Amino acid sequence: MKYTLLKTCKQTGARLGRIETLHGSFETPVFMPVGTQATVKTLTPQQLAEIEAQIILSNTYHLYLRPGHELVEKAGGLHRFMNWPGSILTDSGGFQVFSLNDLRKIREEGVEFRSHIDGSTHFLSPEKATVIQNALGADIIMCFDECPPYPAEREYAKSSLERTVRWAQRCKDAHKYPERQALFGIIQGGMYHDLRAQSVEEMLNLGFPGYSIGGLSVGEPKPLMYEVLESTAPLLPPHKPRYLMGVGSPDCLVEGVIRGIDMFDCVLPTRIARNGTALTAQGKVVVRNASYAEDFEPIELGCDCYACRSFSRAYVRHLIKADEVLGLTLISIHNLRFLLRLMQDMRRAIREDRSGDFAKEVLAKLAEKRENDKEVCRP
Questions:
Q1: Annotation says 304 is catalytic
Q2: Of the four listed, 99, 113, 279, 375, which is most buried by Cβ atoms within 10 Å?
Q3: Beta bridge partners of 110
């Protein structure tokens, strides 16, 4: 992987960059659709290409449980297995394992957990998480980390970040293919600015081609997340990409970009699509509501996606009410295209040194919705 910083916006410090992998190059800031189980729900790879997705995310925990990383490796890796020609990032499974709560036990060696599928017992160590990702063959992979909950006591957050650093070294030592898979270190430290700084320092000492900011979007208020980003992102090296994990609502994307973040992912756009909800510049539109039964306008006027070019809200609502899968597909296409287009607009604004003005415009349109936006952005 190669990262090139192309421009820094004079208004905000937002970054325009380019990442090159063995499966193509793409500009940042970028939103990555989530294909948890080697598929972005209800969409084909062709549809993803049509909405101009260039990198997607898959999940180590879920693919380890089924179909198994050995099978994916036999198939030629994730790219061939799911017929996706673009770049792929896999997370380490750390967040999913730690979110199991009563189903897991943490110790220095790793984490013992029970499968959410059948209750079977498994053990995931930093080494095993890395070997699994090596077998999956993604272009960018993550270190196995301990993700503390919110709120977390200071001592717990400190212990967690120090264990994450030790595990990062073990991941680096176990990594088989550094020449074709970029291993990112993960910054932890809870909501404590000094612990975040400590985490950055120790991760930089280990040396990784990119850095992820973990432990956010875990239930904390959005202003607190922004404070942590403001204190953490400037400590990271400018010549390496910065990835904010599990964040993808429109307001959080804009706020993250103007604070120097390059990469984002979130299940939000496809998750709310399955509930009949669409993202628009004016906030969420719950298409399944009765008020749209005779609304023959597109989901969003001016949107260039296939759903908006071809169908009305009334038709999409009919599909949702009739439990037709096409309805979920159409809203998913729209929601993902909306976020990908938002990032394209952000990149243009950075190039023109007006990312601050653009962010204000976007946030002003979303202002009424932001206060009540409680969507969970994690897979």
A1: no
A2: 279
A3: 107
Bridge-partner residues for 106, per DSSP? Answer: 111
Q: Choose the catalytic residue: 145, 251, 262, 265.
A: 265
Residues 99, 100, 102, CA angle at the centre, nearest 5°?
125
CB atoms within 10 A of CB 296: 10
Grouping H, G, I as helix, E, B as strand and the rest as coil, residue 60 is: helix
Amino acid at 251: D
Q: Which of 91, 139, 145, 251 is catalytic?
A: 91
> CA–CA distance from 362 to each of 168, 215, 283, 284, 344 (Å)?
37, 26, 10, 14, 13
Asked if 247 and 216 count as a contact pair (C-beta separation under 8 A), the reply is yes
Q: Respond yes or no: is residue 91 known to be catalytic.
A: yes
Report the C-alpha gap between 68 and 188 in whole angstroms: 28
| For residue 374, pLDDT beyond 80 | no
Residue 100: per-residue pLDDT:
86
Q: What is the mean pLDDT of residues 68-95?
A: 97
Q: Are 56 and 88 in contact (CB under 8 A)?
A: yes
Structure tokens at 235: 């400590």
CA–CA dist 110, 219 (Å, integer) = 25
- Strand 15-21 to 2-8 pairing: antiparallel
* Cβ neighbours around 10 below 10 Å, total: 12
Taking the whole predicted model, whether its pTM rises above 0.90 is answered as yes
